[in-house]
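Support request, please re-run this one:
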Amino acid sequence: MAQALIDHIDPEAILLGVTADSNEVVIRQLASRLEALGYVKPSYADAVVKREQTMPTGLPLGLAENVAVPHTDPIHVIKAGVGLAVLSKPVDFANMEEPDEAVSVGIVFLLAINDKDKQIEMLQEIMGTIQSPEALAGLKQAASVDDVRAVLS
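Re-run finished. Output below.
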């Protein structure tokens, strides 16, 4: 049986009501949390920020909330995990398909995957979740880790 998305997200790496003025600030907040929890190396945050500049991950969903799924090479990862930030107000990420376009993002899944094959599986799992308007609304309204767990289980 496949694991649920929530099984990959450390409860300590769920940040709700995040205030940030740029996508880099959000990435660094989540990366710092993943580093403190032993998931990633100190090089991880810079690597994700650098990759986001050349290979953006903003996903325009055509819904009330858009999502970004920043990640980087497995060399910067100690063990697999996912960080989740729900922003109090959206920040711009570049569009994955049209890098010159900005996407206003309210939910960020930061991937720390140490196996390329698992990275593809995780991206597919996230894509399945975020295509549900109900799931996105539930994440946006989540007031606790338990609320997030209920939405993603």
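Residues 5-148 form a domain with the Mannitol-specific EII; Chain A fold (CATH 3.40.930.10). The beta strands are 9-18, 58-59, 67-68, 81-94, 102-112.
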